[in-house]
Design a protein that fits this description.
The complex is a heterodimer of chains A (about 675) and B (about 325). Chain A is of the alpha+beta class. Helices cover about 50% and strands about 15% of the residues of chain A. Classes of the chains: A alpha+beta (about 675), B alpha+beta (about 325). Chain B: Belongs to the class-II aminoacyl-tRNA synthetase family.
Chain lengths: ~675, ~325
């Protein structure tokens, strides 16, 4: 049972592609081997900047022989058909067997594939994987035609067991597989032969290469944390940056250095953005001053001076970068003091938001009008919401946000405070983009909520108006996220507002019904995680006019709770019986029985009782709905269960007397109508 | 230069350039001189853009003065200049040891790889005006970008076969780092112990100030626009000529004179941009116009090379005297 070790050694693989490439290598190799009859016990894949590696254990020495029979055309079939079969099977006419069959003499191909030794299968699979590897971007180099993410230099491919290791014979565009690996580019460039995966990993470690990216991350975090701790500071964790940095080094050497004092007063988010974006530095915070005071950089090499020169160089580069950031910050502050954020926002008149939805400035004007409208519904002062809307996107015209787009909002807040706006207004600048992801917090301050809703509703109504809706996986304007944002802001703040008038106000051209249906779909996706059934949402949404999301969700929850009780389940059964009879008779007669049934035609007993129960339920449901007491509405509906069951027990709907029959069908319809005040039960599944 | 000088740290901007010239000459590159036109980057030199096209092997290195009018800071900014130097190497097909060759060039200018942290960080290169792109890295030394390293995949819309390897060094920044200088104008240009020692500022400060004013506030935009259109028209007119020259009777496709006009148009666009007369929407349109020229020039260069190859193949032996 040999083990397999593969290493694909290349020039530097982009950090962002490494993890995925290691996964792809494992998946494609194991799939390809299994497809060819080679099983394995365990697979592990690794990536460093210069190599992808895969270790598989427990491979068979050879695949099992395979015997396959295939039925072909009749022996007297036209020559063409027989030739086709020969081509498909790769056999000659003489090799086919003729057998008697119900249809006469039929040709059979018996294909025997002997077992193949594992070396051959590995070579074939690896070549296929290399030639079709799904890099996000690949390239050619030199005069060759092979594609890889960057020039591929060598392939290590060995099968090894207790007896020793052997190289798998394989050559791809002049690169012949071997058993040789190389260490760190600068610290241990000499090639060395390897005998097994354990040998490989150990020799790499000795040659200053940490093969496992998780181990590199662990070492970086541990070193960075202890460097910071030693000076009473704390590392600002950043998993995305850690992932990237671990993909830029084979031998992480973590170094910490101070930020020059003239930059310490820059806003911490600016320091972080500049250090992360340009230099891939971590930030180190002083918990006493709450400022970012040091940086951590991860080098790829150990030097005789323990990184002193490297650190000095990095500090110098950082100072040049921070000089730029400081220059932008000071220019922006000057601009804001001179002409305010409104003045800064003026430049946005020249920035197109979308060719059919006008400039950013026009969009801001729409958001302002909408925010004013929404403000009273969410407990904000209209003037304050309008003011916030007017300046919330002004920082898009700042130099800092031009340089660091991820600082949008955060800079707006700082500049708004600088310009003397109220803290609530400044907060709205930062918070109105939220929530950006499913785990991002939603704004709760009323002014922020008003602007955040206006921002998203304007976007949705606008794109609906020009028919740029998301389709399938395409959602270039992140409209799903915007709709989910509205839903989450409304629900998590328990806001009561009707969306339809806001859609109309935002862009009268938009199809509000369609947009509302889009919201219903988003709502289903959002509530699915909580176990809310999509059909229950449909049953409530179908009532029409449901554009108050908070109310809709309360109704949905009440209905679902109701359906989970016996009363609910039984009422549903009675409802369905009524609806089915009615539907069948309506179809037969070609009419709709939608008139009010006449109580005077009802027989005393269960039929009369049902009339009375429906009258009572109708009134009570209406009253409960008026008070938005959905649980009570559902209870009122549940009270119909007994009378409906008793009715079906005792009364024949299809009475011989046509007038009585018609009246009873109309009575069934009334069950539908009365319950429909609360929900359209016809949409409940199961 | 003595042997000791060679192995030690360089002392001036020009020494770094000379060492790069010597290094790449020793590696077999033709050391060319700068192209005699205003360009935004060393890539525009026909020795890169055009020679990356077609099948013929090529190896060249050169300094290229480059102009980016919007980067002018009147000579005040420690790192930004509207006129600066790039060092450019282009080798086709890209040799398998190009990374090692490159690292050797860093050692040649005094960067001891055992003491510094040199890394290749993903940075794919694209020139929308040249219709060109490639994959590669920016090379970091102690966190500073010192070079751009690119394997050309396409130029002027043509797939590069074979692929060229391109190295671009930002000379001022690299030299400031190697020489330990904080402000570009303070950098020694020639040997600091020379009888007449000149700093970078002595050579360029006035020029930076003068061009900054002209670029930003004075350049006649109507004239620039007119010149842009002239260059565009002339480029097309050159390429519209029939391949056969009526006077000599030879096939002469004038790819390079046409490409000069493309370079001109590109620089005029940069000047117009610095004057702030191009709106964001117009920007894209101008870039597309330059790209269209570059693409036609690339087509013509490839056609010219093919015509030349056909001619050589057809002639076989040299033509007899007098024929």
């Amino acid at each position: 049972m040999p083990d397999l070790l593969i290493e694909l050694f290349s020039e530097e693989i982009p950090a962002r592609m490494q993890a995925r490439a290691a996964q792809d290598l494992r998946r494609l190799m194991t799939d390809g081997l299994v497809e060819r009859g080679v099983t394995y016990a365990h697979a592990a894949a690794f990536a460093t900047p210069r190599r992808l590696a895969l270790a598989l254990t427990g491979l068979p020495e050879a695949t099992r022989p395979v015997r396959e029979e295939r039925r072909g055309p009749r022996a007297d079939a036209p020559q063409k058909a027989i030739e086709g079969f020969l081509r498909a099977t790769g056999l000659t006419r003489e090799q086919l067997e003729e057998r008697e069959d119900k249809k006469g003499r039929v040709l059979f191909a018996v294909i025997e594939r002997p077992g193949r030794n594992v070396d051959e299968v590995v070579a074939e699979t690896l070549e296929e994987v290399i030639r079709s590897f799904p890099w996000p971007k690949s390239m050619r180099w030199g005069a060759g035609a092979l594609r890889w993410v960057r020039p591929l230099h060598s392939i290590l491919c060995i099968l090894h067991d207790d007896q020793g290791a052997r190289v798998v014979p394989l050559e791809i565009d002049g690169i012949r597989a071997g058993d040789v690996a190389r260490g760190h580019r600068f610290m241990a460039p000499e090639p060395f032969a390897v005998r097994s995966f354990e040998d490989y990993a150990a020799r790499l470690e000795a040659a200053k290469v940490v093969l496992d990216p998780e181990e590199r991350k662990r070492r970086i975090m541990a070193d960075a944390a202890s460097l910071a701790f030693a000076q009473g500071l704390e590392l600002v964790e950043d998993p995305g940056l850690l992932e990237e940095v671990a993909g830029l080094v084979e031998w992480p050497v973590t170094l910490m250095g101070p930020i020059a004092p003239e930059f310490l007063d820059l806003p911490p988010e600016v320091l972080r953005a500049s250090m992360k974006e340009h230099q891939k530095f971590f930030s180190v915070r002083n918990p006493v001053t709450d400022r970012i005071e040091q940086f951590v950089t991860v080098a790829n090499v150990e030097t005789p001076d323990h990184g002193a020169l490297i650190l000095a160089g990095n500090r110098k580069v950082l100072s040049a970068r921070l000089s730029d950031a400081k220059f932008f910050w000071e220019n922006d502050l000057r601009a804001v003091r001179e002409k305010g954020l409104e003045g800064m926002a003026r430049k946005l008149a020249n920035v197109t938001f979308h060719s059919r939805l006008g400039s950013q400035a026009e969009r801001i004007a729409r958001i302002e009008a909408l925010a004013r409208e929404i403000a009273p519904l969410v407990g904000a002062k209209p003037d304050m919401a309008a003011e916030a809307a007017r300046i919330a996107k002004a920082d898009l015209a700042s130099e800092m946000v031009y340089e660091f787009p991820e600082l949008q909002g955060a800079m707006g807040r700082r500049y708004a405070l600088e310009a003397g706006h109220a803290p609530e207004v400044a907060a709205a600048c930062a918070e109105h983009y939220a929530p950006l992801g499913p785990s991002d917090a939603v704004p709760t301050a009323p002014v922020s909520v008003a602007v955040a809703l206006a921002d998203k509703i304007d976007m949705l109504a606008g794109f609906w108006a020009i028919d740029e809706k998301p389709t399938g996986s395409k959602d270039p304007f992140a409209l799903r996220r915007a709709a989910l944002g509205v839903i989450r802001i409304v629900l998590e703040n328990d806001l009561r507002l009707r969306l339809r008038p806001l859609f109309a106000k935002a862009d009268p051209r938009c199809d509000a019904d369609d947009l509302m249906a889009f919201f219903a779909e988003r709502l289903k996706a959002h509530l699915r995680a909580e176990g809310v059934r999509h059909d229950v949402i449909d049953a409530c949404f179908a009532l029409g006019g449901q554009d108050d999301v908070a109310l809709l969700v309360r109704r949905v929850r009440a209905l679902q709770a109701f359906l989970e009780q016996d009363d609910g389940a039984n009422l549903l059964a009675g409802y369905r019986r009524a609806a089915n009879i009615l539907a069948a008779e309506e179809k037969k007669d070609g009419v709709e029985y939608s008139l009010d049934p006449m109580p005077e035609l009802a027989e005393p007993g269960p039929e009369r009782a049902l009339f009375e129960a429906l009258d009572r339920a109708e009134a009570e449901i209406a009253e409960a709905l008026g008070a938005e007491d959905f649980a009570r509405a559902m209870r009122a509906m549940a009270a119909l269960r007994g009378p409906i069951d008793a009715f079906f027990e005792a009364v024949v709907v299809n009475a011989p007397n046509a007038a009585v029959r018609r009246n009873r069908l109309c009575l069934l319809n009334r069950i539908r109508a009365v319950t429909r005040q609360a929900a359209d039960l016809s949409l409940i599944e199961g | 230069m003595t042997q000791a000088d060679k192995s030690g740290a360089p002392r001036s901007f020009q020494e770094i350039i000379l060492r790069l010239q010597n290094y790449w000459a020793s590696k077999g590159c033709a050391v060319l001189q700068p192209y005699d036109m205003e360009v935004g980057a060393g890539t525009f030199h026909p020795a890169t853009t055009l020679r990356a096209l077609g099948a013929r092997p090529w190896a060249a290195a050169y300094v290229q003065p480059s102009r980016r009018p919007t980067d002018g800071r009147y000579g005040d900014n420690p790192n930004r200049l509207q006129h600066y130097y790039q060092y450019q190497v282009l080798i086709k097909p890209s040799p398998p040891d190009l990374q090692d060759l490159y690292l050797g060039s860093l050692e040649a200018i005094g960067i001891d790889l055992a003491h510094h942290d040199v890394r290749f960080v993903e940075d794919d290169w694209e020139s929308p005006t040249l219709g060109a792109w490639g994959l590669g890295w920016e090379v970091w030394c102690d966190g500073m970008e010192v070079s751009q390293f690119t394997y050309f995949q396409q130029v002027g819309g043509h797939d590069c076969r074979p692929v060229s390897g391109e190295l671009t060094y930002g000379l001022e920044r690299l030299a400031m780092y190697v020489l330990g200088v904080d402000h570009v104008m303070d950098m020694p240009f020639n040997d600091p112990d020379a009888p007449i020692a000149l700093s970078y500022g002595d050579v360029f400060r006035r020029a930076e100030r003068e061009y900054s004013r002209w670029n930003f506030d004075v350049a006649d935009t109507e004239m620039l626009l007119r010149h842009f259109e002239d260059a565009e028209r002339e480029c097309a007119a050159i390429l519209d000529q029939p391949a056969r020259d009526p006077k000599t009777g030879r096939t002469i496709i004038m790819a390079q004179p046409a490409y000069d006009q493309c370079i001109k148009a590109s620089h005029l666009f940069n000047l117009l941009d610095a004057r702030g007369v191009i709106s964001p929407t117009e920007r894209q349109a101008y870039i597309a116009r330059v790209r269209a020229l570059a693409k036609r020039c690339a087509d013509a260069f490839v056609a010219a090379e093919e015509a030349e190859a056909a001619e050589e193949a057809g002639q076989g032996a040299p033509a007899p005297v007098g024929a």
